[in-house]
Write a structure and sequence with these properties.
This protein has 164 residues and is mainly α. Helix 1 runs antiparallel to helix 2. The protein has a domain of 98 residues.
Length: 164
């Protein structure tokens, strides 16, 4: 019968011959090797569980981001539809021709700016959710800050979840 080697990490000691009485063959040369394998396995299991949890959280954040992007698209379509409808009206009925705001008659001031604000707010919310999704996926603040055109500290200060 061939002699076996220890299964401990980086341990290549030969194990004693199997007993003639039967039983399980020895797998490790010492308790130290057995403990090293056990710790290594526990570390591996923790790492896999961490990756699975990160993948689940990233999937949730990706769903939130998709919803936010659809909200941005909805606001953009609403603004485009309003501008298209306005373009079909005669010039005297378009907000660009209003001389001043008249809230009592349904003519608020700065109508184009007000219409674009909804789009801007939806886009800012989408960016915040995208940053959260990137952080959940394990991206560093430096990478996120570079994408935003700011420093890592500024990105962290603006978008860290505890500050919201």
């Amino acid at each position: 019968m061939a002699r076996r080697r220890c299964r401990g990490p980086n341990c290549y000691k030969l194990l004693p011959e199997a007993s003639t009485r039967g039983g399980r063959p020895q797998m490790y040369c010492s308790e130290r090797c057995r403990a090293r394998v056990r710790r290594s396995h526990e570390w591996y299991v923790r790492r896999v569980e961490t990756k699975e949890a990160r993948a689940d959280a990233t999937a949730e954040e990706r769903h939130r981001l998709r919803s936010a992007v659809y909200a941005v698209a909805r606001e953009a379509r609403r603004l485009a539809a309003a501008l298209d409808a306005e373009a079909a009206k005669p010039e005297y009925d378009q907000p660009a021709w209003w001389d001043r705001a008249r809230p009592e008659s349904g003519r608020p001031g700065a109508p184009y700016t007000r219409a674009a604000l909804g789009l801007l707010e939806a886009a800012q919310e989408a960016v915040a959710i995208a940053v959260t999704a990137d952080r959940t996926a394990g991206r560093p603040w430096a990478e996120i800050g570079e994408a935003l055109g700011v420093s890592a500290d500024t990105a962290a200060r603006r978008y860290r979840p505890g500050d919201r």
